[in-house]
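Follow-up to my earlier ticket, as requested here are the two runs.
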Amino acid sequence: MSGLTFELEPFRNEAQEGFRGVAGPYGDTMAYYVKSVRDHQPNATLRAQLVSEHLPEAHVDGIGMGGQPSPYKATLEVDGITGKLKYNSYGLTRAARALHITYADRTYTYAYTRTLRTDTELRRRGARITLTNGRRIRGTGQVRKVTTHGDTDEVDLAIALVFEAVATDPLDPTAAPLYGLFRSDTNGDG
């Protein structure tokens, strides 16, 4: 579905944090992670979840902080099918650090297109979804504007939206050195 545009508002409560809104014809949609109730446990697997009226269920499980998973040692599952995630943690540019996703018979690239936590893009042949910051909501953060281009479908949208609840900082070369310190400190793999 090309040309679909909608906004997701940030939300935060005692248990969860993420984004929610009406995703056009796909109805009420929420991408979130469950906040950690205790201090960070090294190598603990954390989950980001997408729940929607008419989009396939999706989640990302990975190692992270404060309840929010990162792409590091992560897995993706959409509608019961597992996808593979891979990125170059030594890349020096946004393109070199892009997350490569293989799901069913599709391959995607998820990358920052501008500065940290502003513009991201999920792309596969013939389809692209852009996510940009919108207006600021006091106390919770910025609205995310989602726009589809080309031959996008429900699976594309589910993948793009679930990553809104994932700590994708390691994909941006400006934040990667800080994230690398965390990773080497808490994980024996370094």
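Run two:
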Amino acid sequence: MERLLPSRTSAIAKVSSYLIWFTVAFICIVPILCLVAVLVIWIHAPAGDFTASQVVLQSIRTTDDFWQALGAHGITFGARILLTLTALLIAATLEYVMVQLNQLLTCFRSGEIFNKNAVRHARAAFHAAVFSNLFFYVVQTVTLIYSLMFFNAGHRSDFFMILANIVGDTVWVGVSLLIIWSLEIGAELNEEAQLTI
């Protein structure tokens, strides 16, 4: 058993060194994609009567093509602001998560798998991903309720789409929490082992 641990650690370090390049590429690509999205929103998207709330409603419906609907109806100035802020928020969250994952993989590559630094980076990436998803679900749900109450523009079936997405993300949250808790337990056991030596 003891002979297997160094080989597993070296295997984790090797795989992590490959994955670090993926995170670096992602960190470089995300700002470029964000810039392209903002340029499309302000230059390519036609002016029209599609409001910010209608943009949010359209984003919930997976049956319709989002960008095709925006192109067909055109968007208002408020919708452009909303889409720009959304693109910036998504890009900032992805950048933050990727930087934290990069730092976590750097810990793994150096053989520091179960320590507080690795746990801190894993927890930071997890919290950023969870809170950004939660924010988008709240915005979608509030917009849908508002449109149903005042404009009768939403569809009750959209609630099921949001609920299905929440259930899927809850499974992801549960698995991620188990991994983080495992890292925390490993870090605590590692500290105890160092104290006893």
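The only thing I checked on run two: Residues 4-196 form one domain. Let me know what else you need.
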